[in-house]
Structure formats: C-alpha cells, structure tokens
Amino acid sequence: MVKQADQFDWVSAYLDTHGLLTPWRRISAVFIAAFAADPLIMLWSPVGPQHPVTRAVTMVASGLGILGAALRFKRWPTRRQSNAWLLIAIGAIAAALLSLSDPYVGLMGCTTFAILGGYIAYFHPAGYVRANLAVAAACVAVLSYRLVAATGDVALTAGSLIVVVGLNIGVPFGMQSLVQTLRTDLQTSDRDPLTGLHNRRSFNNSAYELVRVHRGTPGAHLVVLVIDLDEFKRLNDTQGHAAGDQALVAVAAALRHSCRATAVIGRAGGEEFVVADVDTAPEPTAMADRICHAIAEIPLAITASIGASSAPLSDAAAPSTDVIDDLIRTSDAAMYEAKRAGGNQVRHYRE
C-alpha cells in the first residue's frame, strides 16, 4: 500500500454532501457497540476469561468500546478523534482476545482486526493500516502458539490461519484500492476541462474539507472570494472565442500563482471564478488585491471585479455547507458592488 495523506476529511465531506454521513455514523456506532459487547458476553462462557485480571481487562476493553460507540452515535468524530479512537480500539481488541481462555476462539476472533482494518483503510492512511496489521499479526502468533500447545492440532491451526490472515490482508487492501479509485475518479470528473480548476461541486466539497480541518482553530476565518472578469463578453465578441478561452486559462494560472497552496480555486461558470482559503485576517485584503493586480497584468486587456467575505471558524460548532453557500452569496453581492463602481477593484462584504 502506498503512502498517502490522511483522507478522513475529504471522505467525510463526500459522505456528508451525499447525505450518507449520518447513516454511516449511526450504523458504525451500532456495530462498534455490538463488537464491544461481545467480550462482556464471553465472561459467562467457559471459554471466556477466567482469571480475575483477564476478566478485569475484558471489562475495561469492552467499556472503552461502548463509550466510543456512544460518542459516535452522538456526533461524527474529527480526524484527530478518529485517530485516537482507532489506536484505543486496536489495543482493546488485542487485550480482549488475549484474555480468552480458549486460544481457538481468540484466534478466530482476530478477524475483528480485519473489520477495523477496513475502516482504517477507508478513512486513514496506510501507516495506520500497517499498525493494525502488526498488532493483529502479534496476536495471531501468540494465539496460534497457544492453540498448538494446548491441542497439538497443527491442521486446525493452519486452517484457521488461512482464514484470519486472508481477511486481515484482503479487507484493508481491497478497501484502500476502492478509496484510491474513488479519489482518482473525483479528481478527474470534478475538474473544469478548460482551466483544470475545481468545478462548482468539487469546489464546495474541497471548501467543506477546509472547514472540517480548521473548525475550532482560534483566530481562523474561512475566506471566500468571487471573481468576475470585466468586459469578457466584449473580448469574445471582438477577438473570438479562442481569445476568450486563452484569457480564462491565463486567469486560472494567475489565480494559482497568487493564492497559497492551501487555497481551493474553482471556476463557477463562464467568466466567474471562486477562491476559498483559511486566514487569520477577517478581511483578506492582501490576497484579493494580489489577485486583482495579477489579472490586470495579463496581456489580454482584461480586469476583474472581486467580492470578498469571511466567517470565523473558531466558534464553529460543526462544519456545514451552509457557511460556504452563505459566503459565496455575500461575496457575489460584493463583487457586483465592485463591478458597479467601475471594475478592476475589490469590495469586502459588510452587513
């Protein structure tokens, strides 16, 4: 599995924009609670933990799982919370399985790591998948040794290993391949074919990801700029559509050069562009002026009217597409104010 950035935020944003995040949250909470309750049930089984210490370990592990399920049922976690949860889950699963008195039951229970590995591969990078696999391998090795020592049945152990190892490798690899394919398709289908910038849907998804990553950050503001080219219709009419396309490509290049690497840049349609970024300044004067000047310097006699607005993220209770839509609307109003004032200038929205 190749090394990649943590995809938790963009996958969560994708699920949310398609109305799937709440069902995912509730279903995953139910499954977590069910798997966490299983070791508790085993306390009443002859093959379950028998020693007071292992019984205590089992109760703690199950308690952590049930607590995690309750928190998830209430609210979808942040990326950091999910990272912390899965590390706790890996340790709790290992502790519960090694506490069982029957090594065969414990060995087959290692398939639980495969289920967790599928979740990790879907939402997190390969490093966490490898960590889960390493702990699973250690548990499998210990329990296999115990099984052979207790029963002498090498064939049973070998057959069990085929199932457990196959699932622990196959499920995460398959899930990660699915996510990589999904990401590639989204990147190619959500791009404007002329400029290579985000189209409107892709812009909203990526801007939503910015909100998720930076929500609760002290002093952080989500900044949105709406950029409309002045006299673009005249350029098309006098010099032809080829010149218009050349201008759009040049503007896209100017935006990439003028914005930070963290900025999300999209073409909203026609001669209108939109930029989103996170800044500590509530009024992005420097960025907006830099873009305005860069477009004016393009040797095609075009300028831009730019509208800007922002919203604080430090007190955001939860990420929402509403804040993005609201900022686009207010920036659009400010852009028309700049255009009415003669164009080639920036206006900040003020209520």
Share of helical residues: 55-70%
- Note the beta-strand portion: 5-15%
Q: What Rg is obtained from the alpha carbons, in whole angstroms?
A: 27 Å
- Quote the distance from N terminus to C terminus: 50 Å
Assembly of the depicted chains:
single chain
- What integer is the average pLDDT? 89
Defining key terms:
351 residues; alpha+beta; five-stranded mixed sheet; 13 helices; elongated
What secondary-structure arrangement, pairings included, does this model have?
Layout: H1 8-17, H2 21-41, H3 52-74, H4 79-98, H5 103-109, H6 111-123, H7 126-151, H8 154-189, H9 200-214, E1 221-230, H10 232-239, H11 241-258, E2 264-269, E3 272-279, H12 285-296, E4 303-312, H13 321-340, E5 345-348
Helix pairs in contact: 1-9, 2-3, 3-4, 4-6, 4-7, 5-7, 5-8, 6-7, 6-8, 7-8, 10-11, 11-12
Compose a concise summary of this entry.
The chain is an alpha+beta fold. It is built from 13 helices and five strands. It folds into two domains: 182 residues, no CATH class; 149 residues, Reverse transcriptase/Diguanylate cyclase domain (Alpha-Beta Plaits), CATH 3.30.70.
Architecture overview:
The chain has 351 residues and is an alpha+beta fold. It folds into two domains: 8-189, no CATH class; 200-348, 2-Layer Sandwich (Alpha-Beta Plaits). Helices cover 65% and strands 11% of the residues. It has 13 helices and five strands. It has helices at residues 8-17, 21-41, 52-74, 79-98, 103-109, 111-123, 126-151, 154-189, 200-214, 232-239, 241-258, 285-296, 321-340, and strands at residues 221-230, 264-269, 272-279, 303-312, 345-348. Strands 2-3-1-4-5 form a five-stranded mixed sheet, sandwiched between helices. A hairpin with a 2-residue loop joins strand 2 and strand 3. Helix 1 crosses helix 9 (200-214) and helix 4 (79-98) runs antiparallel to helix 6. The radius of gyration is 27 Å and the shape is elongated. It starts with 7 loop residues before the first helix and ends with a strand. The model has no long low-confidence stretch (mean pLDDT 89).
